[in-house]
Design brief:
With about 375 residues, this protein is α/β, with parallel strands linked by helices. Helices cover about 30% and strands about 25% of the residues. The strands form four sheets. The chain has a seven-stranded mixed β-sheet with strand order 7-6-15-16-17-14-18, with helices on both faces. A six-stranded mixed β-sheet has the order 9-3-2-13-20-19. α1 packs parallel to α4.
């Protein structure tokens, strides 16, 4: 029988960041994931400088063996509408490949890894947990994304009663001919919003790789909307006409759109498992990392007492950091449509609200670790 201080289910940025912080303070951590890393992950794939700072990433070292594309501009607009380019004097984000980035963080975490193993059973045993009949631990952390099994144990109504964002994405290495036919600049991701402002599509070039996708609230008509978006990009000459059409699906919850129970005795959730994606942009990496570090701080303060009462400061930390839960409807549809058509063509609004506030969160300081 194996044992550990903390068992984390899920090896993405939330799980690996929590493991990294706990290992830095001497805890014995095991990360279990049903996948074997490196593995593909549906995501546009960029990180802000605040994530780099919080995780203490050495960008020069990382870029030696991994894709790290500096971003200095954005091209934005409505699907089928006119486009606007916004440039910055400095690097405001970095493009990454999730297959590389997630594996890098996981290997760097220093945790013991159980890859290719899903959590199939869990039961109470002597004040702690027995997982898969093989490993005992006093604390289980759910970091397995939207469909995390730990979230289900805490009562999440996955797929029922939750208004999730559905996304489809493809990332592929372009041939020489495709690179010549692709007019997306590597330093300039392109974002195109649906006219009802309930989602957006993107195309993002990272060296020889191209990432194309679309995400929106609710999965109804997503395939049709995606096909239309791809045709729009091809007609505008943005992506190659032979761009592959085998897109991969993903789902996640925007912060405040569904209230999942985030902790109980000997158990808590981080990242997408807790439903923390940014309501405006859908970004998941930053809130995943930040929630993981808040969870780690709470765990360290608990000093082995992982009762619900001792874990409650985690919920308080998140409420203070992410702010009050806002209404998910965003106002009347006709008003949203009107504002979208008018304001997305405005340079000031696009730069200072859409990009700086919603996507880059430039007014929010990077979280610091001890």
């Amino acid at each position: 029988m194996e044992s550990c201080d903390v068992l984390i289910i899920g090896g993405g940025p939330a799980g690996s960041s929590c493991a990294w912080e706990l290992r830095r303070h001497g805890l014995d951590v095991v990360v279990m994931d049903k996948a074997t890393f490196p593995r593909n992950k549906v995501c546009a794939g960029w990180i802000t400088p605040s994530v780099v700072e919080t995780l203490r990433l050495d960008t020069e070292d990382y870029a030696r063996q991994h894709v790290l594309q500096p971003i200095t501009a954005f091209r934005t607009g409505l699907i089928d509408g006119r486009e606007l380019e916004t440039r910055y004097p400095v690097t405001v984000s970095y493009g990454i490949r999730r297959s590389e980035f997630d594996d890098y963080l996981l290997q760097r975490s220093g945790a013991r890894l159980l890859q290719g193993q899903a959590m199939e059973s869990i039961e109470r045993r002597g004040g702690g947990w027995l997982v898969n009949g093989a490993i005992t631990t006093p604390l289980v952390i759910g970091a397995g994304g939207h469909f995390c099994p730990v979230a289900r144990l805490l009562g999440a109504a996955v797929g029922a009663g939750e208004s999730a964002v559905a996304a489809k994405e493809i990332e592929f290495e372009m041939s020489t001919a495709q690179r010549d036919a692709c007019h997306v600049r590597p330093d300039t991701p392109e974002l195109y919003f649906c006219r009802d402002m309930k989602g957006y599509g993107w195309c993002f070039r990272k060296g020889n790789y191209l990432n194309v996708g679309l995400g929106r609230e609710g999965s109804q008509h997503l395939p049709e909307q995606l096909r239309h978006f791809c045709e729009f990009l091809k007609q505008r000459g943005r992506i190659p006409h032979d761009t592959p059409d085998k897109f991969h699906g993903h789902a996640y919850l925007l912060y405040g759109h569904a209230v999942r129970k985030k902790l109980d005795d000997g158990m808590l959730l981080v990242g997408d498992a807790a439903g923390l994606a940014c309501p405006q942009s859908g970004e998941g990496i930053r809130p995943a990392v930040e929630s993981a570090l808040m969870a780690a701080a709470t765990i360290l303060e608990a000093r082995g007492d992982y009762s619900r009462q001792q874990l409650l400061p985690y919920a308080s930390r998140m409420a203070k950091h992410f702010g009050p839960v806002s209404s998910p409807n965003g106002g009347p549809a006709f008003l949203r449509n009107f504002l979208a058509g008018k304001l997305l063509g405005n340079k000031w609004f696009t730069r200072h609200v859409v990009l700086d506030r919603w996507f880059l969160q430039t007014g929010k300081a990077a979280m610091q670790t001890a």
